[in-house]
Design a protein that fits this description.
By secondary structure, the protein is mainly alpha-helical. The chain folds into two domains: 30 residues; 87 residues, Orthogonal Bundle (Flavocytochrome C3, Chain A, domain 2). It contains five helices and no strands. The protein starts with a helix and ends in a 43-residue tail after the last helix. The chain binds heme C (4 copies).
Length: 117
């Protein structure tokens, strides 16, 4: 291999490395929380292949979380159950955020004060 091809190959390699490096830098600006972080979920698990990425559809969450009934059962001991009071249309992501603090939508009107993961 001549010195010139060697340098070219090296430059191409470094460019590829830099591209990969900057992609993961952008991704790490979107940190995960709790169980999802521990599982090291790839972005696609929630966002699919859609680019630019949008707020995930509930169907993506349900691949793992099964059904609203199953989610409701998990917090059945709480009175009232935050998993659906009188509004069944609210999507998971209206309360559960992944890259920022979650919010408890109920408390726009009530003061249940549940800590929302
Ligand atoms: C690849 C599987 C998977 C996907 C996709 C997924 N989750 Fe999870 N999630 C889990 C597992 C496993 C746990 C831990 C066990 C549990 O609490 O059900 C968890 C836990 C949670 C928790 C409890 C907090 C915690 O960190 O333990 C919330 C809230 C949650 N998920 C919401 C969501 C929402 C909202 C979405 C869609 C935007 C989603 N999940 C997508 C697997 C997944
Ligand atoms: C109105 C707000 C709200 C919505 C909408 C909501 N959640 Fe939650 N969720 C909460 C709160 C509050 C908790 C914590 C309850 C507690 O204190 O244990 C919680 C807890 C959880 C947990 C942990 C349960 C455990 O094991 O203790 C999971 C998993 C979860 N939510 C998934 C979901 C999924 C999936 C959806 C959509 C189908 C959803 N949530 C919709 C408010 C909400
Ligand atoms: C467990 C599900 C989950 C995973 C995994 C996940 N996200 Fe998200 N993402 C969300 C949710 C929920 C929102 C809605 C706003 C928020 O939580 O901050 C969101 C919002 C976003 C947005 C903003 C979209 C908008 O229009 O507001 C971007 C960009 C994004 N995510 C990028 C990423 C990247 C990059 C990764 C991988 C490192 C990733 N996400 C992994 C759940 C997830
Ligand atoms: C847009 C405002 C609004 C939101 C958001 C909301 N509620 Fe309510 N809720 C009300 C109103 C109004 C009443 C009726 C109050 C009354 O009759 O005194 C009520 C009544 C209730 C009651 C029975 C009365 C009581 O105060 O004990 C429960 C339980 C309840 N809501 C739970 C929830 C839960 C859980 C959520 C979140 C999943 C939620 N609500 C979200 C407005 C709201």
């Amino acid at each position: 291999m001549s010195m010139k091809t060697l340098l070219c190959a090296c430059a191409a390699f470094c460019t590829a490395l830099f591209a990969a490096g900057s992609a993961s830098a952008a991704d790490s600006a979107m940190p995960l929380k709790g169980a999802h972080k521990a599982m090291n979920l790839p972005c696609e698990a929630c966002h699919g292949d859609i680019k630019p990425r949008e707020v995930p559809e509930e169907s993506k969450c349900m691949v793992c979380h099964q059904s609203r009934e199953a989610v409701k059962a998990k917090t059945a001991k709480l009175k009232p159950n935050p998993h659906y009071g009188h509004d069944e249309t609210v999507e998971c992501t209206e309360c559960h955020k992944e890259h920022q603090e979650s919010v408890l939508l109920c408390d726009e009107c009530h003061q249940w004060g549940y800590k929302t993961p």
